[in-house]
Amino acid sequence: MTIKKHSFQAEVAQVLHLVTHSLYSNPEIFLRELVSNAADACDKLRFEALNNAALYEGDADLRVRISFDEQAKTLTIEDNGIGMSEAEAIDNLGTIAKSGTREFTSRLTGDAKADTQLIGQFGVGFYSAFIVADSVVVETRRAGAAASEGVRWTSRGTGDFEIEPIERAARGTRITLHMREEGLEFLNGWKLKSVINKYSDHISLPVQMEQEEWQEAEQEGQPGGMVKTGEWETINQANALWSRAKKDISNAQYIEFYKNLSHDFAAPLAWSHNKVEGATEYTQLLYIPATAPQDLFNRDKQAGIKLYVKRVFIMNEADALLPSYLRFVFGVIDSADLPLNVSRELLQESRDVRAIRDGNTRRVLTMLEQLANAATAGDADAITDVADKNATDAQEPEAGAIKEADKYAHFYEAFGSVLKEGLGEDMANRERIAKLLRYASTQSESVSVSLADYKSRMKEGQKAIYYITADSLGAAQSSPQLELFKKKGIEVLFMTDRVDEWAMGFFNEFDGTPMQSVAKGGVDLGDLQDEQERKAAQEAAEQFKPLLERLKEALKDQASDVQVTTRLVDSPACLVVKDGEISGQLARLLKQAGQEVPVNKPVLEVNPEHALVKQLESTSQFDDLAHILFDQAVLAEGGLPADPAAYVKRVNAMLLGAASA
Ligand SMILES: Nc1ncnc2c1ncn2[C@@H]1O[C@H](COP(=O)(O)OP(=O)(O)OP(=O)(O)O)[C@@H](O)[C@H]1O
Q: Histidine kinase/HSP90-like ATPase domain spans which residues (predicted)?
């Protein structure tokens, strides 16, 4: 016998230590993980067999079987799926390849309580077997390989595992759990059935158990018991959840299916399940999650959409089926039209796929509109049409379920900034996306002002929707560019997401009203400015001409122009960029991201009414004061002077001058 010992990868050992040493609050999830792995293995076989039917070895009835032996204290999960070669067993069961699980191990703290909670959130796949078992034996053979190429993998969940070649006539994988004390409750037909129904009902393959019958005791006076008949019975519905009629699916089942799909521990905010008919036929089941995954902001994150063709699993993360700005959505698409051998490359070009993608996009936007409307109406009944059923009215409402009216705010906090990418990415739906956007503003600290709200509050004579982009709410609120707007009571939207400035580059008007950055171009308040103010500004400009010339000359390396402004009230100066040029804020973001930034010198605008500006006329330190004004304008918008030491020196010189005067 050739038994080889292998050590687990360090991260696996860490996970196993945790699984076996901390009391696990929800032990039954091991069954969900193992049955779902078994079903995945069958899906993989079905997919590979599309091009090579010989892999079925004459048996195409894929199924998962669960059996138990009370005497031996074992529970066995067996599938006739793809199986594993020796190398695959070593690799798949001895290392952690999935980035999610690696991320999980990197967040382990060593504090058993916190870590146990974490485990509940991430799930640990195959290793969850050690929650209930003190030793696990995996016997497997890859489909298509010879019977002699079977392999037995054994581990007690400590630092290492053993690998041994075996004869195995059956393809697929059998996992035998030697139960520890905590696992004995699962060696019971009723218990197993109820757990499998809970977690695996939506699985499209039959999950079978040995049939049991009640038998009276042979001797009178002795209790009877359940005995196995030797037959297998299918205990789940064994048809894909999405292929069933909506009325036959409970909310709890929808939620459980979502959790399986997403590995999210929280219930989704909403879902929509439809059979789409017409030129392209498909079934669509889409979910809006309540929580954002770690990698949401990575634009390479794959969409959480699984693609099936006529119930046959084709691929995970079918990102051609949704635009990137909706990458937070999870779901299943089952197409009746696509060829079974469709590849990722083919998906990109297919007309059917484009139709599905458009249909999915519209559906998600409709769901979001429903959530947004419910928030406005504050009405729990508002969502009945599209997001057919929601977590709040589930049969078993989840603890901490989010109220209908709060769902949109919840969604927006998690995913709003991703949705904004749609302004640049999806021209066809730009108006619909715009209606879903929410901002804080000079009139609202919370991110709750829609563009329609804004428009309904616009002042008589106001011609644009005003906004300012900044690094943070605080920076936006104290921006000098707002001074005139505040004085006149004109609302300005605060755009403080990184993506805002970029997104606004694609979004020039909403519902016929132009979008205008208050930090760009000349502010023309139109009819909001009275004749007197306009005249005063013109006079000031005339009077300031010589001074402006001197300022321009002094700052010619920093500013493209110097102008007199009426937009300032309390501040002496501010920077603006010309329409169509990128702002200082975006330039800083791009620089941080290591990108080349075009050098646009900003325009310095000065407030002729400000005492410091007035002082310019008479000061003997004109050059220093000019530079200080410029650098302060940079500071006020959240930037840093190009030469901070020189700035400090100049300010100190001025302070000392003032002190000795
Ligand atoms: N029954 C099985 N048949 C064939 N391969 C399996 C089986 N169970 C597990 N594996 C292999 O072991 C790997 C690790 O399984 P594990 O459950 O830890 O992670 P996962 O399935 O990749 O992720 P998750 O369970 O979170 O979806 C799987 O990806 C698969 O390749």
A: 26-183
Q: How many domains does the chain have?
A: 4
Residue 126 assigned ligand-binding role = yes
Atom of ligand 1 at shortest range from CA of 82 = 4
Instruction: Quote the Cα angle for 245-246-248, to 5°.
Output: 70
Domain with 644, as residue range(s), is 539-578+599-660
The verdict on 404 and 444 lying in the same domain is no
Task: Confirm or deny that 85 is annotated as ligand binding.
Answer: no
The 3-state DSSP class for residue 141 equals strand
Pair type for strands 207-215 and 64-69: parallel
* Cα–Cα dist 132/177, whole Å: 8
- The answer on 326 and 377 residing in a single domain is yes
How many Cα atoms sit within 13 Å of 372 on the Cβ side?
22
Provide the 3-class DSSP secondary structure of residue 258: helix
Looking at the chain, how many residues does it have?
A: 661
Nearest CA to ligand 1 atom 29: 92
Of 291, 289, 334, nearest to 313 by C-alpha is 334
Ligand 1: distance of its center to the CA of 92 in Å?
Answer: 7
Ligand 1 atom at minimum distance from 172 CA: 3
**pLDDT digit string, tens, across residues 493-506:** 999 998 998 899 89
How many helices and strands, by DSSP H and E, does the chain display?
22, 23
Task: Say whether both 402 and 425 belong to one domain.
Answer: no
Q: Quick one: 357 and 440 in the same domain?
A: no
Distance CA 44, CA 315 (A): 9
Tell me the per-residue pLDDT of 219-249, one tens digit each, with 9 for 90 and over: 887 888 888 888 999 998 777 889 889 999 9
Mean of pLDDT values over 304-318: 83
**CA atoms in the 13 A half-sphere facing the CB of 395:** 9
The verdict on the CB of residue 123 being under 6 Å from ligand 1 is yes
The atom number, within ligand 1, closest to the CA of 263 reads: 26
Q: Please tell me the predicted confidence (pLDDT) of residue 339.
A: 80
Tokens 């930034």, residue located = 597
Q: Which atom of ligand 1 is nearest to the CA of 33?
A: 25
148: helix, strand or coil: helix
For residue 296 the two structure tokens come to: 């949401």
Q: Report which protein residue has its CA nearest ligand 1's atom 14.
A: 92
Nearest Cα residue to 126 out of 85, 165, 92: 92
The Cβ of residue 199 has, within 10 Å, a number of other Cβ atoms equal to: 21
Q: How far is CA 552 from the centre of its chain?
A: 48
Exposure string of 469-505, with b = 16+ CB inside 10 Å and e = fewer, is: bbeeeebbbebbbbbbbeeeebbbbbbbbbbbbbbbe
Residue type, 72: A
Last residue of a domain, one of 375, 393, 408: 408
Q: What amino acid occupies position 114? A: A
Question: Does the beta carbon of 139 lie inside 6 Å of ligand 1?
Answer: no
d(CA 96, CA 113): 23
Instruction: Mark 320-342 as b/e (b = at least 16 C-beta within 10 Å).
Output: bbbbbbbbbbbbbbbbebbeeeb
pTM flag (> 0.80)? no
| Tokens representing residue 338 in the block | 């696509």
**Whether 376 and 475 share a structural domain:** no
